[in-house]
């Protein structure tokens, strides 16, 4: 009976000895082993918050998920936190610092609410990351620089509108249009961008913004048709909706899936589908109005241009890529190289297609060249490769194929679904080609970082 009564006391003594062996005996003034000391905890939170703010800027500015994750880990390591885990999704990111196995981690969360493609900010964050990792600046200086990047004034509205409108006009020429079609596309895209900006300020969802923009672009074509203008109306519509086509979002969704981020890739893909559905809705609604008014708007197919137009189209591709770069705040010194990458990619695509190569094969090879050229230029200028890669792939984005698929779906043609699938396959080819080109140059970038460090 005595042994049975003493059993609970012996169990408590054994538990106390086991606890003391792991964490030491409890003493007055001893820090609780399951909590970090207060000053260190504040410092860890500040570093994690700094890294996540930088990651949120990158993700909101159009960077891929794998780029954001590696940037956060590099920034935390440069600030002295070497045992961090990061989870990045399409809308939020979480970072945890694991101090040791017997101490609870410090965890913080950042929600990405602002999604404005701004490659100037992306370049600034990339430069900050490189300087901090190389030891050229202290963590405190890095915190201040990030605050300055966040506080940068917005881009001038007139500059952005003119860049988007010029890109639309260049795309019209790229697709085989003349001066009048390009001028109408310029005016149409100007109206589209202004309306989109007004709707965005009022918090209108992407679907309705895309539908409104597509309706405006189609209405301009309907106005030309009503006066019998000598313009291919399909070129006007295609050029006008190029500012709406979610080309890079399609490529980014596939790229996330290829690099091991299926959740982010699925979220981006859904965003692409909603935007594409909005474009289809806007074009279809305007066409129905056209039929009801007796305008009988005719949107014919767009075919491959003759060989004699290749130089003009290559030049238009370079201008379109450079103006896309300008519209997305790429620094001035990178505009001409970005345009050159776009021209090389489009020249490769046209050359292969005139040699009777398939669209997907031609696009994938052109994307490989764009990825290689973009990474090499980024290595030379010590900046982020998206400044050259993204504008470079814009001429390759299957906007014409998407437009043709929408037209087929509206007219009830059985070719609509296969055409949209071909557009998806082209997006996959672009993403795979760009990724392959980046992988070929990645060892060069790594060795450069080792020399700098």
- Report the biggest beta sheet as strand number plus sense, adding barrel if it closes: 3 strands, antiparallel
- Tell me the domain tally: 2
Q: What is the number of helical segments per DSSP (H or I, 4+ residues)?
A: 17
Query: If you average the pLDDT, what whole number results?
Result: 79
Oligomer: single chain
**Could you list the spans in which at least 5 consecutive residues all have pLDDT below 50?**
1-5, 7-34, 444-453
Strand order of the largest sheet: 1-2-3
Helix content: over 70%
Kindly, what is the distance between the CA atoms of the first and last residues, rounded to a whole number of angstroms?
Answer: 71 Å
Structural class: mainly alpha
What is Rg?
27 Å
Bulk shape = globular
Number of strands: 3
- Content of β-strand: under 5%
Return the string of H and E elements: HHHEEEHHHHHHHHHHHHHH
